[in-house]
Amino acid sequence: xxxxxxxxxxxxxxxxxxxxxxxxxxxxxxxxxxxxxxxxxxxxxxxxxxxxxxxxxxxxxxxxxxxxxxxxxxxxxxxxxxxxxxxxxxxxxxxxxxxxxxxxxxxxxxxxxxxxxxxxxxxxxxxxxxxxxxxxxxxxxxxxxxxxx
Length: 149
Prior knowledge:
By secondary structure, the chain is an all-alpha fold. It contains 8 helices and no strands.
């Protein structure tokens, strides 16, 4: 296997996961990620292939990432950490449309998870609204925190 993949090092499931990243196309790796029930494996694949994806596949990957329920290590936030820099490179209008679709989905998660997701998506927010957008989100989060004291 290329790219330093080693079945001995990663174990059987990890080997399958890393194999698709080493020798398959990004499209093939995305199809594999769609089949994984294991959140960590799905997140790992989506994060690794993000820089190699076309705009169309990147959008599909964002859809898969939003569906990840687990927020911790190997979950949705980690996936957004990998996707956000690539998403921020999309044409601004397309990125804005994706943001409009994504934000309501993320807002349906518990508040703490939403804040972690927003933190991971900072490159997207900055691209859409500049540093002022980050400041506004920080102020809004502080305001909401005050309401719940």
